[in-house]
Amino acid sequence: MKAIIYRDNGGPDVLQLVDRDVPAPGPGEVRVRVAASGVNPTDWKTRSGATNPMSFPEVTPHLDGAGVIDDVGEGVDRSRVGQRVWLFMATAGRPTGTAAEFTVVPAGQAVPLPDEAGFDVGASLGVPALTAHRALTVAEDGPRRLRPGALDGKVVLAAGGAGAVGHAVIQLARWAGATVISTISSPEKARLATAAGAHHVVNYREGDPAAEIRKLAPDGVDIVAEVALGANLALDMAVLRTRGTISTYANDGGRPVELDVMQNMRLNTRFQFLVLYTVGPEALTSAAEDVAAAVRDGALPVGEEHGLPLVRFPLDRTADAHLAVENGAVGKVLVDVTP
Ligand SMILES: NC(=O)c1ccc[n+]([C@@H]2O[C@H](COP(=O)([O-])OP(=O)(O)OC[C@H]3O[C@@H](n4cnc5c(N)ncnc54)[C@H](OP(=O)(O)O)[C@@H]3O)[C@@H](O)[C@H]2O)c1
Question: CA-CA distance, 168 to 38, in Å (whole number)?
């Protein structure tokens, strides 16, 4: 089979297209013929060595993907062969991700994908949707799970709603019944966040975004899903309601964070920091179940008309796909693996 590998950390040029044996699924595992592989910022950060040194002598990158199960290991129901699935956390603790014609994952990390949902949708779910789920389920007064109605009466602020995670935050929050406000930085991104389902968009680079958000949500925001805590802390604090939650999944821009302890005490602020690698199996499983339900409801579409343009590359241009993500491509970067 064709596979992308790297043997050393470095720039995109460490990625090579090679031939490898088709892997056999072990006990409790499924083998998937990968149709599309989703690229996330963590994939290039891991490849570059910025986050961790190499954990294996050779790595096939990419956590997310979608395809069809073509074999199962011992203990897995054989009726799953032929099932369309989306994959999550494929490279967590193992060296073989989805940038290959076949990959092997624990059966629970291959989630059935309904016929109505394309492989584009499936390969876009993993990291963004599971992150968004976590961000929306850590408030003091719940909910812990998402379903229609779970966020009724709540106001969610999706920072940077034209980003891949921001897009998933908007879609999941909207599906669960929240009023959704998204910050954006341009009219084009306003259009995307609105297409994703945001009720309101506010340009965070112009005017007085805090006053605008306060006008939209006079009682304050219940949950902020934050991509740039250092840059946005003052804004978040200005719009958060008492006992509100700031769920932080990134600090893009790298600005340092300085907390005003008294202000946070007065608000009873809850900060939840999150990274999928250590969120634990229970949270991942719950998130995958709820995301699967949202997919069945048709609530997580992708594509320009749904606020997430698709930027596609063939497998032999995976290096360009990494560069696109690193350079901040707007939308979802996908690698087409097999037809
Ligand atoms: N903790 C986790 O488990 C986890 C999971 C997924 C992703 N992440 C991290 O989250 C970040 C985003 O990932 P992604 O896949 O969504 O990337 P993406 O598609 O490139 O989106 C990033 C978004 O952040 C927005 N942004 C940047 N600075 C902002 C600011 N000051 N205020 C508001 N929005 C801002 C950008 O919009 P503008 O350019 O318009 O500002 C852009 O829409 C990356 O650093 C990634 O590594 C972490």
Answer: 14
Helices and strands (H, E) in the chain, number of each type: 9, 15
Q: Which two tokens stand for residue 53?
A: 């040194």
> 189: which residues sit within 8 A by CB, 6+ positions away?
161, 162, 330
Whether 160 lines ligand 1, by a CB cut-off of 6 Å, is yes
202: pLDDT strictly greater than 90: yes
- CA 142 to ligand 1 center in whole angstroms: 24
Q: Which atom of ligand 1 lies nearest, measured to the CA of 183?
A: 33
The answer to whether 17 and 2 are in contact (CB under 8 A) is yes
* Mean pLDDT along residues 81-106: 97
Q: At 290, which helix (H) or strand (E)?
A: helix 281-296
Is 339's pLDDT higher than 90?
Answer: no
Whole-angstrom Cα distance, residue 165 to residue 160? 9
Alpha-carbon distance 245 to 138, whole Å?
8
DSSP state of 192: H
Q: Which amino acid is at 301?
A: P
Q: Which of 131, 206, 227, 276 to mutate to test the pocket of ligand 1 (most atoms within 8 A of CB)?
A: 227
Residue 104 to residue 249: CA distance in whole angstroms: 28
Which pair of structure tokens corresponds to residue 228?
A: 């740039």
If one counts every other C-beta atom within 10 angstroms of the C-beta of residue 90, the result is 28
Residue 315, both tokens: 């497998």
Q: What is the mean pLDDT of residues 192-218?
A: 98
What domains lie within the chain, and their CATH numbers?
Answer: 2-124+308-336 (3.90.180.10), 128-277 (3.40.50.720)
Helices (H), 141-280: 164-175, 187-196, 209-216, 229-239, 261-267
Return the structure tokens found at 126.
Answer: 């993993």
* Entry pTM: 0.98
Residues in the chain: 339
220 contacts: CB under 8 Å, gap ≥ 6: 155, 214, 239, 240, 241, 242, 244
Tokens linked to 163? 């980003």
